[in-house]
Design a protein that fits this description.
The chain has 422 residues and is of the alpha+beta class. Helices cover 38% and strands 20% of the residues. It contains 12 helices and 14 strands. Helix 4 packs across helix 5 and helix 8 runs antiparallel to helix 9.
């Protein structure tokens, strides 16, 4: 069903983001996807496994030099004979290397340590890791703050989408543009549970998500530099230059959500060991931190991006899915589902009586229309102004049948066109 013609300029964050195994699906938009079988030891590189164990806080406690190493979970040492202990071969050159890897992976799958699950995820699907955290005041009674956890989830969604949008185009304000492809770039992302309401990790598969992680790395550091410049000089010029690194209103709004109500917050990235280090990026990126004192600069930058993003001249082909005017004659408002010409799902436009009649007839026979105009940034690039050259577009029978089916599903809009109801 189509949304209201007055839908908000700020859409929800990526519907493609999936729940981390072990977390209920409710806070995330798509279905729960459990992790599959333990990774095949024949396909696991011991060096990658060792790097992941080290990243997630496991302790290396010796072993046979040059042959294998022994790893124990994060935290204090377990009593003798208790806890998980992994023997990880240093190479695959020895006859028992694959057996040792298989035993280590099985032990990881059985371990109660949360980090064990994260290591297995990164082995199953090579992923860059993005971690968010918030330093919030200690809640009464020491219980984790549900509100803080929800705020952290929301901020994480917004940051991921801002990065995916920046891959599609460098602009100060994306609005409704590029969102379908941005969401597609987030297919397969796994998001972990919020730890104590303060810490959250996303696993972004290298294919196709590395471009998003790399863009976020550059954009977050550029944002930090621009905020420092604004706080030191009062000028916003650095935010203009930061657009080239991927900074946008969407990212500044995401960081405001992350920081608001906290004593400080940050984002850290770690590259997938199996995929190597992206070109132009450090091996161990520095975390990027923000404080409540940064909020005024972020708000000013977001307002500047929104105010200064120009309208775009376009020629759109779209299916008529909404018609509305105040009487049986005169100008009216038309809503199009965009098929080509702009990276937005829907636009609305006001047409004079003759153009409105053409759009209504195209709607009746299941034909899209082509129209020229200016896609306005106000409202999120959902409004087309100065509309002209409205003409029906011929399509093949299969496409016409699909459009006619859409017409039947939106019969209320058709009735508005005939009766002139509001």
């Amino acid at each position: 069903m189509d949304r209201s013609m007055d839908e908000s300029a700020d859409e929800a964050i990526p519907s493609a983001t999936r729940s981390h195994p072990g977390e209920p699906a409710a806070p995330w938009p798509t279905a729960f996807q459990p992790l599959g079988d333990v990774p095949d030891p024949a396909r696991v590189d011991p060096a990658v496994l060792g790097a992941l164990l080290d990243r997630h806080g496991w302790h290396r406690r010796g072993g046979a030099t040059g042959r294998y190493s022994r790893w124990t979970p994060p935290g204090p040492p377990a009593p003798p004979g208790g806890g998980t202990s992994l023997l990880v071969p240093d190479t695959t050159a020895f006859p028992d290397s694959e057996d040792l890897l298989g035993e280590a992976l099985t032990a990881l799958a059985r371990s109660a340590a949360p980090s064990a699950r994260e290591v297995l995820i990164s082995l199953t699907v090579p992923s860059d890791e993005i971690r968010w955290w918030r330093e919030a005041p200690e809640p009464v009674g020491g219980a984790a703050s549900w509100t803080g956890a929800e705020q952290l989830r929301t901020a994480a969604r917004q940051v991921l989408l801002a990065g995916a949008l920046a891959v599609r185009g460098r602009t100060g304000y994306h609005g409704a543009r590029h969102r379908r492809r941005a969401r597609a770039a987030l297919e397969g992302v796994l998001v972990g549970p919020v730890s104590d309401g303060r810490d959250l990790t996303a696993f972004v598969p290298v294919e196709p998500g590395r471009a998003v992680a790399v863009r976020l790395h550059h954009a977050l550091h550029a944002t930090r530099d621009a905020v420092d410049y604004q706080r030191a000089t009062g000028g916003l010029e650095a935010f203009d230059a930061a657009v080239g690194a991927g900074v946008s209103r969407e990212l500044t709004e995401a960081l405001i959500t992350l920081v608001r109500g906290s004593e400080g917050a940050g984002v850290a990235l770690e590259w997938a060991p199996a995929a190597g280090i992206p070109a132009g990026c450090p091996a161990r990126p520095e975390p990027v931190e923000f404080t409540p004192g940064d909020l005024p600069a972020l708000r000013l930058a977001g307002a500047r991006y929104l105010r200064e993003e120009p309208a775009v001249t376009v020629r759109i082909t779209g299916a008529v899915v909404g018609l509305r005017r105040s009487g049986p004659r005169g100008a009216g408002v038309v809503r199009l589902r965009v098929l080509a010409g702009a990276e937005v799902p829907h636009v609305r436009l006001e047409l004079d009586e003759e153009a409105y009649r053409i759009a209504g007839h195209a709607h009746l026979v299941g034909l899209p229309v082509r129209v020229e105009g200016r896609l306005e940034s106000r409202g999120g690039f959902r409004r087309l102004t100065r509309a002209s050259q409205v003409v029906p577009v011929q399509v093949d029978e299969a496409e016409r049948d699909r459009l006619m089916k859409s017409l039947q599903e939106n019969v209320d809009h058709f009735e508005e066109a005939c009766t002139g109801e509001q």
